[in-house]
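To: structure desk
From: M.T.
Subject: fold request, one chain
Message: Could you run this one when you get a chance? Sequence is below, nothing fancy, just the single chain.
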Amino acid sequence: RMRTKVPFLLVSTSTSGRGVGSRLFSAAEDWFKSRNLKDVYLESGKNNHNAHNFFIRRGFMKVSEVYYKGE
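Reply: Done. Structure tokens follow.
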């Protein structure tokens, strides 16, 4: 089963609420479908609640938390 990960989907705060993110993500989803990519994973900062709600509205569900340690 083919999988993909969305590394970045960034939209300027000045375009918030204007449908820019929705149009970008719709285009990405069309691209995934055209390549038969059925599992899509993405990450978002833990306090980015607007993004979390955006992803949930698009049918995503929270499946994990990511932990990091760096120097």
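Reply (cont.): The two ends are 36 Å apart (CA to CA). Let me know if you need anything else for the meeting.
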